[in-house]
Amino acid sequence: MLPRFWRKIRYRYNLVGTKCENCGRIYYPPRNLCPECRRKSSMKEIELSNEGTVLSYSVVYEAPESFKLMKPYVVALIQLDDGVKILSQLACKPEEVKIGMRVKATFRKYGEDGERGIIYYGTKFAPA
Ligand code: ZN
């Protein structure tokens, strides 16, 4: 069994990812297995910076059913201040987003997909 470390919800105000100690890759959302190293992977939780800069973005007009009320929404590639790049939904209007804009993590929820080893964080980013 894999350790269910993500149950320890101690990081309410910090963005947490996982780092594979075998190859050094950092994953966000956290994973309990490194897709590159698989059985050799040794995952460790790491805290990520809560702030970053928008590198690129796209506006999504076709949303899944559960996102309907928020359509269209913005998904941005964000470079966190510690250098990690993540993809996140941005809580702002499509006309407000700009490349190079400063953003901050705002909100989170927890869920997991045990089969694929992916842990979902509902963290969104908003203009800082
Ligand atoms: Zn790895």
TrEMBL record:
Top-level taxon in the UniProt lineage: Archaea
SUPFAM superfamilies named in the record: Nucleic acid-binding proteins
Alphabetized InterPro entries for the sequence: ChsH2_C, ChsH2_Znr, NA-bd_OB-fold, Thioester_dehydratase-like
Domain (ChsH2 C-terminal OB-fold): residue spans on this chain: 46-108
Domain ChsH2 rubredoxin-like zinc ribbon: 8-39
Identification of the protein by name: Zn-ribbon domain-containing OB-fold protein
Organism for this UniProt entry: Geoglobus ahangari
